[in-house]
Amino acid sequence: MTGLSIENLSMRFELPNGDHVQALQNVSLDLKAGELLSVLGPSGCGKTTLLNIVAGFLAPTSGKLVLNGHEIKGPDAERGMVFQQGALFEWMSVRENVGFGPSMKGTPKAEKNKTVNHLLDVVGLQDFKEKAVYELSGGMQQRVALARCLANDPDVILMDEPLGALDALTREKMQSLVLKLWKETGKTIILITHSVEEALLLGERLIVMAPRPGRIHKEYRLPFADLGVNADLREVKKHPDFGPRREEILNMIWDMEEEIMGGKEDAA
Amino acid sequence: MIPLLIYVAIFIAAFFIVTKVVQGAGIGDYTSLKTVTFGDESAVRPNRAAGIISILTIFLMWGVFTGSNLLPGFLHAPGPFEGTTTFTYTAEADGQTDDATVTVVVHPREVETEAPEVDPGDGFAKNDSAAIAQWRSGLIRVDRNDELGRDAGATVVAINGEAIAPGDTVAVEGGAVTLSDRGTPNFEPTKGWQMEPLYLPAPEAVWIRSIEVVSAGFRNFTLLEHLGYSLFRVIAGFLIGALVGIPLGYAMGLSDWFRGWFDPIVEFMRPVPPLALIPLVIIWAGIGEAGKIILLFLAALWIMAIAARSGVSGVKISKVHAAYSLGASKWQIMRHVIIPNSLPEIFTGARVAMGVCWGTVVAAELVAAEQGAGMMIMTASKFQNTDIVIMGIILIGVIGFGIDMLMRWAERLLVPWKGKG
After folding, report:
1. Helix, strand or coil for residue B27?
2. Mind telling me which residue stretches traverse the membrane in this protein (chain B) (predicted)?
């Protein structure tokens, strides 16, 4: 079978002071190939832990992850990751960054150059390919990160707040780009974000996670991503369902945040 | 005190002339509002004019207070008295007094001068003469040629008609006369405000001596050989230190066993100043090249190991994760992520290490060496060749500065991504 299946995933961190944190408890999720899942939740709900486990950077305490029929054990090029910021290699040019994956695999030069050039065209950075990455703006750097991830042709793309550090305008442009790339490449994407709007706009499916212990609180199937693929995202936001959904989810997260703050006050 | 006041005056005058008059008032940007610049060195850029004037001022002051030929005479600080002066003394013996004249020739130290012949004159006190070098003083046994000398009970009671007792001083033309405890006049020529060449030679004297040392050499080695030996030791010690220290630092950054094993050693050795190791190194390896290179190796080793260690452990985990998820193997991550990421730190360490090595080699040569910049100035100081000492200090400073500039340049060229991560 194709797709990603997460079964009864739990993650428990032992703290040096003898305490422990239940970052994830019995999280189960099935993701079909080509789905775009956005993950929302208050701070500390285990979103990033979930992503790191899927990426293979963390081994779960218990549970099983199966991708395309084989179990996930450690990081692999089949699961690419796009970080918020600062994960580009500043000692390499834009072209070298994008070509990093193919270079590591030993892809022949001609083929690698073709892939890199194609992706630079897609993300609109052809003119900047010989620049150092630190000479680019934040939005351009995230385009490089996207292109670098795609150059490896992964089955699943994991995005950890990739647009979190960008200004509103750049962010909107990048959201369109992510949707476009998703449709064109048909990749499975898991997107973690703090922005409810972004989660609604980009997520074909959306899960809201709750903290202490980290678990899936609610799941939605949304029409907005499909609507937004070739449309102005601002038009999508005018959809009659968009506003109410946003309010509903915002309230949900707001309540959870309040609960956390209250809990902290009790502890203190 | 006076030089300091003049220096401050030049500083203030230059400030007002350059900033208010020449560079013009009214070109106000907001840099002047940055009164607090802690942690932001770049907020204030050095004023180029101030830098140039500062260097010129140092040479000007040097010239003024050494009577340099490079400066027109009116700029010189008052120099020491030179020439012939006279004073009279009054001797008293058996109730009678007599005056006699003392002629003193004050001459530069390097010019041998005989006391002039003088007419003895009349009376029981005879005229005297003496030759005294500048910046020195001399007892003048005025009674030696007198008919009634000290042994006959004659005493000097006045200089130039001014009464004087042992221990008193009377100012005379071109100097001052002090009566010693035993009643002999001691003439001290006026020193002026200039420095004696023994303490501070004029700039041109240093320059002339430098050329001499370049062509003729000093202590069996030419100047270039002295400096070359020092540089060779620094480079050899630094390279061996880097060659051992960098892999050691990498191992410490990557393996907890290495970290645990070497941390106590490195952390103990790091605060030990390399200068403190000189005696032990001399005991173990003697004063030859081996000892020097071992010392510099030890000076560079810990700095390079710590720089490499922090370069490795400073890598952002997201970069390593990104490389893993792009399919890189452990070795590829080492080669393409960890090493390039640590290079800026290593360069910073190398700059520090080169500076420390240069300082250490000079100190080691001061202690014991056959040749080298430090040995040159130490030996010169023993023979009071102050000009060579000053030349040596200037060259050591220039070379140290040059090394740092070279390292900065290499850093810009080789690790342009420094601080951009």
Report:
1. coil
2. 48-65, 231-251, 271-287, 294-312, 346-367, 388-410
Residue A19 reports pLDDT greater than 90:
no
Indicate if the pLDDT at residue A266 is higher than 60.
no
On whether any CB of chain B is under 8 Å from the CB of A13, the answer is no
In chain A the domains, ranked by start, together with CATH numbers, are 4-10+36-51+62-267 (3.40.50.300)
Is pLDDT of A268 > 60? no
Distance CA B346, CA A39 (A): 41
Candidate from A77-91, B245-259, B348-362, B371-385 with smallest mean pLDDT: A77-91
Q: What per-residue confidence (pLDDT) applies to B27?
A: 55
Which of A57, A80, A86 has its CB closest to that of B326? Answer: A80
What is the mean predicted confidence (pLDDT) over B199-220? Answer: 89
Q: Tokens 């350059």 appear where?
A: B18
Task: Please give the mean pLDDT across all residues of chain B.
Answer: 88
Residue B108 is encoded by which pair of tokens? Answer: 């530069």
Q: Which of residues 154-213 of A touch B (CB under 8 A)?
A: 154, 158
**pTM recorded for the entire structure:** 0.82
φ, ψ of residue A15 to 5 degrees: the values are -90, 155
- Spans of all domains in chain B: 2-75, 83-189, 205-414
Identify the bridge partners of residue A26 per DSSP, sorted by sequence position: none
Alpha-helical segments (H) within chain A: 47-55, 94-98, 100-105, 109-123, 138-151, 168-185, 196-202, 224-228, 233-236, 242-267
Q: What is the mean pLDDT of chain A?
A: 84
3-state secondary structure at position A3: coil
Q: Is the pLDDT of residue A83 over 80?
A: yes
Question: First and final CA of chain B: distance in angstroms?
Answer: 51
CA angle B401, B404, B405 (to 5 degrees): 85
List the single residue in B316, B318, B326 with the smallest CB-CB distance to A101. B326
Burial class (CB in 10 A: 0-12, 13-18, 19+), B45: exposed
State how far the alpha carbon of B269 is from the alpha carbons of A85, B279, B302, B306, B360, in Å: 38, 16, 7, 11, 15
**Residue with structure tokens 């050591």?**
B396
Residue B241 has pLDDT above 50, yes or no: yes
- Whether the CB-CB separation of B306 and B266 falls below 8 Å is answered with yes
- Chains A, B: CB contacts within 8 A come to 77
SS3 B67: coil
How far, CA to CA in Å, does B83 sit from each of B78, B87, B130, B237, B294? 15, 14, 12, 56, 57
The answer to whether A211 touches A25, Cβ cutoff 8 Å, is no
The model's confidence at residue B40, banded by pLDDT at 50, 70 and 90, is low
Chain A residues lying within 8 Å of B325, measured CB to CB: 55-56, 75-77, 79-81, 149, 154, 158
Question: Percentage of chain A surpassing pLDDT 70?
Answer: 97
Strands A156-160 and A79-82: parallel
